[in-house]
Amino acid sequence: MVREEFAGADASERKAAGDKRSHDFLMQALAAERPQDAVLSEEGADDPVRLRSERVWIVDPLDGTLVEMGSAGAKVASIVQGLSDVYVHAGGQFEWDSAAPVAVARGAGLHTSRIDGSALLYNRADPKLPDVVVCRPELAEAVLAVTG
């Protein structure tokens, strides 16, 4: 549908339209199914009520728009699949860039932390995360010795 409507648009305009549509879809679905929950979304306005909410959804509707950076999700998936050992990002990200990949990593038994070894904290007033480490647990001590 976006492709048809934006046939004459450039790639960035199509990506923006896709981001908006996926954001709108997720917001409507979450409002219908979880009306008491708050949302922090890359594509939406930040509502400080999320800081007092019992449950918060942190979403990046279509991760990977900045292709040059690559997707944190793809990098974490590479570790989950055993194709890579370590992912370190020290250039700053937003919570929506790493929330889902970190949840998947934790579910797979991987180590997740900041580069100094401290816990990754989400749903903060400032949604910028300075750094993230994801690695196989047996490598965590050695990785943190170098990064921390």
From TrEMBL:
Binding site for Mg(2+): E42, D60, L62, D63
Entry's Gene Ontology BP terms: 3'-phosphoadenosine 5'-phosphosulfate metabolic process; sulfate assimilation
GO MF term (any one): 3'(2'),5'-bisphosphate nucleotidase activity
One Pfam family this sequence matches: Inositol_P
Keyword Signal (UniProt): no
InterPro entries: CysQ/Inositol_MonoPase, Inositol_monophosphatase-like
Cofactor section: Mg(2+)
Keyword terms, alphabetized: Magnesium, Metal-binding
Region span, Disordered: 1-20
Designated name of the protein: 3'(2'),5'-bisphosphate nucleotidase CysQ
